[in-house]
Design a protein that fits this description.
Blueprint lengths: L1 H21 L2 H15 L6 H20 L10 E3 L1 H6 L9 E3 L12 H4 L9 E4 L12 E4 H9 L6 E3 L1 H4 L2 H4 L6 H7 L12 E2 L2 E5 L7 E6 L3 E8 L2 E6 L9 E3 L7 E3 L14 E5 L4 E4 L4 E6 L4 E9 L2 H7 L1 H6 L1 H8 L6
Parallel strand pairs: 1-2
Antiparallel strand pairs: 2-14, 3-4, 5-7, 6-16, 7-16, 8-12, 8-15, 9-14, 9-16, 10-13, 10-15, 11-12
Helix pairs in contact: 2-3
This protein binds 2-acetamido-2-deoxy-beta-D-glucopyranose.
The site of 2-acetamido-2-deoxy-beta-D-glucopyranose has 6 residues, from loops.
């Protein structure tokens, strides 16, 4: 019996060594640390964090030796007519359709959201001060009161799924729209809300002299953002450049990756990012796993609705390693252990 067990062990060691020799050790090490980050019940051991930092340095060195060709610095833009003429919009690069919503039924602006009696009276959770990067809302109030405060120059921020959960009839207006017809009509109906579709409303303004922003992160879902009022500045980075942002699985157990590269790090200036500012009526498509940072424009109140939808093929194809590594956190979210 014993010699046989030794034989099995030798075989396993040989297979492991073969795997290590054939695979690039950097992504393998990084992936192991990310799995520990999602599954380890205690603070991460020091050696794991060191190994992660070693991976980040290796990626930065590799990029310095052989840079990946950078995309054009601006996001691709379509007019509504050009968009209508596409067979199929690209789902692996970002794009904007200028004025897509002008004259459309999807006119969910601040006035519509504030209607009282009606949806404006709905009590929602919100952030009392967008400058503090809290993960969970810290205040509760009537939707129309919060929007009025932001409009008057206040620092509040709304990021709430509750509004459209209470408006299934409005969700049905997505069906048959020229936008959702191209994205895949099956994702956009009230029956999908809460499963493959979530529709948070985001509202805030940039405060003069401050940066109100969401730092670089990437998600397992695609997002078509309807800019209904005001403007937002987008900074986007393709998944193939992930190694350059010091990627790490979300520290709060939720299903996304964030960049440990600080928002003011000098390396940011050298990243091959794409930029675009969205204006009222525009739609921007952020593909699954595309890194993005969002800045609110100073003194401008922005109201957007995100059509977050899970595209299974893009989830697996746009970044297979991230797709595999996010599974533990997706399960935690599905079980309701982590929820905003
Ligand atoms: C769409 O309408 C808004 C006003 O609601 C206007 O500011 C914007 O320029 C329009 N966009 C296009 C591309 O016509």
């Amino acid at each position: 019996m014993a010699p046989r067990r030794r034989g099995v062990r030798a075989l396993l060691v040989a297979l492991g060594a073969l795997l290590l020799a054939r695979c690039d050790r950097v992504p393998l090490t990084w992936a192991a640390v990310q799995l520990m980050r999602s599954l380890w019940p205690a603070p991460l051991p020091r050696r794991a964090a060191d190994a992660e930092a070693w991976c980040w340095r290796a990626w930065a060195d590799a990029a310095a030796r052989a840079p990946v060709p950078a995309p054009p610095p601006h996001v691709r833009e379509f007019s509504p007519a050009e968009f209508a003429a596409l067979d199929r919009p690209p789902f692996d690069t970002p794009w904007v359709v200028r004025g897509m919503l002008n004259g459309s039924r999807l006119s969910w602006n601040a006035a519509w959201l504030s209607e009282s009696p009606g949806r404006g009276d709905q009590m929602i959770d919100y952030f009392s001060d967008a400058r503090r990067a809290l993960l969970v809302p810290d205040a509760r109030g009537a939707l129309r009161d919060v929007l009025a405060s932001i409009s008057a120059g206040g620092p509040q921020k709304i990021g709430s799924e509750m509004i459209f959960r209470a408006e299934p009839a409005a969700v049905d207006e997505l069906a048959g729209h020229a936008l959702t017809a191209k994205l895949g009509a099956r994702y956009f109906s009230r029956a999908m809300l809460g499963t493959v579709l979530t529709m948070p409303v985001f509202a805030a303004r940039g405060l003069p002299g401050e940066t109100t922003r969401t730092d670089l992160h990437c998600e397992p879902i695609a997002n078509a953002v309807l800019q209904l009022e005001g403007s937002k500045a987008w900074t986007l980075l393709s998944p193939e450049h992930s190694g350059l942002v010091r990627p790490q699985v979300s520290p709060d157990g939720r299903a996304y990756f964030h960049a440990r590269l600080g928002h003011a790090a000098p390396e940011l200036a050298a990243l091959p990012v794409q930029r675009v500012v969205t204006h009222p009526g525009d739609v921007i498509f952020v593909p699954t796993w595309t890194w993005h940072r969002v800045d609110y424009v100073a003194s401008v109140m922005s109201v957007t609705v995100s059509l977050f939808h899970f595209r299974p093929v893009d989830f697996a194809r746009n970044h297979p390693l991230y797709a595999a590594l996010i599974v533990p956190n997706l399960v935690k979210e599905a079980l309701g252990l982590k929820k905003q």
